[in-house]
Amino acid sequence: EAVALSGLALALAVALPCVALENGLARTPPMGWMSWERFRCNVDCQADPHNCISEQLFFEMADRLAEDGWRELGYEYINMDDCWSAKQRDAAGQLVPDPKRFPSGIKALADYVHARGLKLGIYGDLGVFTCGGYPGTTLENVKQDAQTFAAWGVDMLKLDGCYSSAEEQAKGYPEMARALNATGRPIVYSCSWPAYQGGLPPKVNYTILAEICNLWRNYDDIQDSWESVLSIVDWFFTNQDVLQPAAGPGHWNDPDMLIIGNFGLSFEQSRSQMALWTVMAAPLLMSTDLRTISPSAKEILQNRLMIQINQDPLGIQGRRIVKEKSQIEVFLRPLSRAASALVFFSRRTDMPFRYTTSLAKLHFPEDAVYEVQDVYVGKIVGALRTADNFSVVINPSGVVMWYLRPMALPLQPWHVARQQAPGEGFHPALL
Q: Where's the Alpha galactosidase A C-terminal domain (predicted)?
């Protein structure tokens, strides 16, 4: 068998010359903070020094992650997005930060971040320009830029795809993976490649993508609205048969940033985004002002059980398993130690809805017994049997999320097949 496997690996290596080495990073979905959704490309530091893209903003967010309980929960990346650089490369052709907004330089920023037990992410764009009009990374700059980022002490790279062709992307994204690996510095690699190719086969080959990138943006940028969150949820779960098998330790689908704590989501909608991103095994990259975040938003984002579920070592992305005419949807994520996460989500806009079902109807194994914990309320209910009917009351555009631990399992072992379609054959992983 070992011989057959090594033969297959060799065949793959020959067939896919662009395959990058496994870098051993992002074994669970990356967590941290990212500037884009909240602070965009605000470069007017004269009029708005507090909120412009400058080293000060990143120093202050690093302080917040380190001092306000975020780092201990796993939020470790401080990620710069577009508009950090000068408008031109220097005389040696190197990317340089804007000298007015980043007078200390990126290496000093990385040192500051590292001194607080955090990691620094940076943004590049495979193309002539970044999306914001700053210098891009064309194919001839790939190696040089990877070396620059490594020399600065960068820990993650998001590589966008504005101002490049499909052909350039097909060459450049794998090329950057190789270049990052060649630096010898561990750098998590986030690709926007599939988002520029429509996110679906045949244009996107998720098998190859998983060999090249640690995470990737598949779909549109998130905006500060519930409508935007719903459009992302719809796209990801409509296409779950393609997307769900692609995710796993070291390679994740990225539905984009968490906008909890901003302006567009209600309390219920904020809880829904957190629960749905967690069930998707999505990176948890907040994009909000951590200096002024409300206690209620902070409580959602710092929910320990939620984070434990998101960071589950099995790394299986969840699926939507029920879509009711009543506009209630149920999502299931299999977890390690035979546990599961269930999310009951209401798209209703009228009033709280009482939804009645059983674990048997959700295809859990017969004769099993579970201890159930409500992820947001914290309340524990013991000894729920698969056959027992139960009811949950779900608020409009809200969720009820459960963490189920097995108390007693049937003798027959159950296993989840990653590629299995939803429906009768889809069971939680009981390993």
A: 315-398
Count of domains observed in the chain: 2
When mean pLDDT is compared across 65-69, 371-375, 416-420, the lowest value belongs to 416-420
Per-residue pLDDT of 276-326, as tens digits, reads 999 999 999 999 999 999 999 999 999 999 999 999 999 999 999 999 999
Closest to 99 measured CA to CA, from 155, 158, 43: 43
Chain-centroid distance, C-alpha 61: 19
Q: Is residue 426 part of a domain?
A: no
DSSP single-letter state for residue 310: H
Q: What pairing do the DSSP bridges indicate for beta strands 31-34 and 284-286? A: parallel
**Phi, then psi, of 367 in degrees rounded to 5:** 65, 15
The pLDDT assigned to 411 comes to: 60
Extract the tokens encoding 145. 């830029």
Beta-carbon contacts of 323 under 8 Å, excluding residues fewer than 6 positions away, are 329
Q: Considering the entire predicted model, what is its pTM?
A: 0.92
Rounded CA-CA distance 370/404 in Å is 6
pLDDT at 414: 47
CB 222 within 8 A of CB 229: yes
Confidence of residue 22 (pLDDT cuts 50, 70, 90): confident
Residues 256, 425: Cα–Cα separation, whole Å: 30
**Does residue 71 sit within a domain?**
yes
For 256, the domain range is 31-308
List C-alpha distances in Å: 20 to 174, 187, 201, 210.
7, 13, 21, 10
Please check whether residues 103 and 40 belong to one and the same domain: yes
pLDDT at 415: 45
Calpha distance 281→266 (Å, rounded): 23
What SS3 class is residue 381?
A: strand
Cβ-contact 200, 239 below 8 angstroms: yes
Q: What is the CATH number of the domain that holds 345?
A: 2.60.40.1180
Q: Are residues 333 and 401 in the same domain?
A: yes
> pLDDT tens digits for 32-57?
999 999 999 999 999 999 999 999 99
- Above 50 in pLDDT, residue 12? no
* Residues with active-site annotation: 160, 221
